[in-house]
Amino acid sequence: MNPILMRAVVDFVLFLNLSGEDVIDPHVSVGLLEQLSATLKGLTVEDRKVFAQYVKELMASEQTGVNHTGYVETLSALIEDLGIPQ
What we know:
The protein is mainly alpha-helical. The chain has one domain (about 5-80). α1 (about 5-20) crosses α4 (about 70-80). Helices cover about 70% and strands about 0% of the residues. The longest helix is centred in the middle third of the chain and has 19 residues, at about 45-65. About 10% of the residues are buried. It is globular, with a radius of gyration of 13 Å.
């Protein structure tokens, strides 16, 4: 999988999850996240594993640095939603 596209998906998920109501309506955010989740579930099992590993590596690097509130939790939920054991 393309690392640039994987990063774009991660950044989009982080934006939707971590932005306040003054930035994006929570109902719109939830709808977009549900749509993205459904789309990502269309990936092959192997591609989902590759994506999950990429996300795990981002989580590990964030845990060693300054942890933005919700960052690791959001990424952990993303992996879980894809149905890939952590």
